[in-house]
Amino acid sequence: MIRHFAVFFAVVLLAGCASTGSKLEPGAPRAEVEKSMGKTTETLVRTNGDTLLFFSRQPDGRAIFVATIGPDGKLRGEVQQTLTRRNIAAIKAGMQAKEVRELLGPPGKSGRKTVSIAFEPAERDIWEYLWTDVSEMRKLFLQFPPTASCGRRTTASTTRMTSPNRCHEGQVTMGRIAITLAALGLLAACASFDGRGLTPGKSTRAEVEATMGRPAEVLARPNGDTRLYFSRLPFGREIYVATVGSDGVLRSIDRTLTRKNIASLKEGMQAQPVRELLGPPYRIVYMKLIDRDVWEYPWRIVEDKRILWVQFSRDGIVQEIIEMHDFESDPPSGPPGSKP
Fold first, then answer.
1. What is the pLDDT of residues 76-94, one digit of tens each?
2. Which domain holds residue 290?
3. How many helices (H) and strands (E) does the chain have?
4. Are residues 100 and 183 in the same domain?
């Protein structure tokens, strides 16, 4: 409630101190625009002589407004929102950082982080924008090689995800930690997390299920084996697969979310081999803007919490694979003693 009140209070302050520009008429002088909209967050001069004034309402306002001022010092057209479906859909890999900045405005948060590209560490500048699609809160990440800050040609890697069950605003609270611990405690009480105590070649399928719990998915293979998937997602960040032979005896138990398995994913693969390799995803999100289904797998490398998104076309073919550090799992940042 405190967080919600703070957000509401911030929005009220914004409403009281600065507008969205809806009452400004084309031809209004720049001074009137700035008086109505408040202090500019960023100013960008275009080659045609126009000046773009960006007014950010990040983070909790979840909007950025841009006013275009002509060489005559007057407002051209109406004040526009930058964080729209149309603008975000226009972002493509290979765009220059300056082009993105001109389209969206300054990010709400930016910083350099180490991400994994084919399991090789790589430095990336990450821009973060919070926005709203109708009543749905969304988050946009853009990744640039460090040269982007120098204005050189670069590749922009975009991640547009809807996360209805994940905290968007850094709200990693004690309540959430307690829920996580409680969930893990229930897992430990009701089922073996990794099948410890089971013996390949001896344990039966009934013993496997008695030890590991009810499988999240069962897949019958052409050779007569049956694969039982035991998901510990999202908090456990593991999926285990128990392979049981046609004789009903356990053949093996393996983790599916490993470097080797994830590195073997390739664009053009069909959904069924991916499902057999990794098991059922934590969730599937439909990305309307690009007409793709996205399978989400939270996983880890030792203590490094990571996230994997596999994007499929509507006919079930892998189009893009994104694997990176799970920034939303990081503890909130801020001064010592501050509360989210």
1. 999 999 998 888 888 887 7
2. 174-329
3. 8, 16
4. no
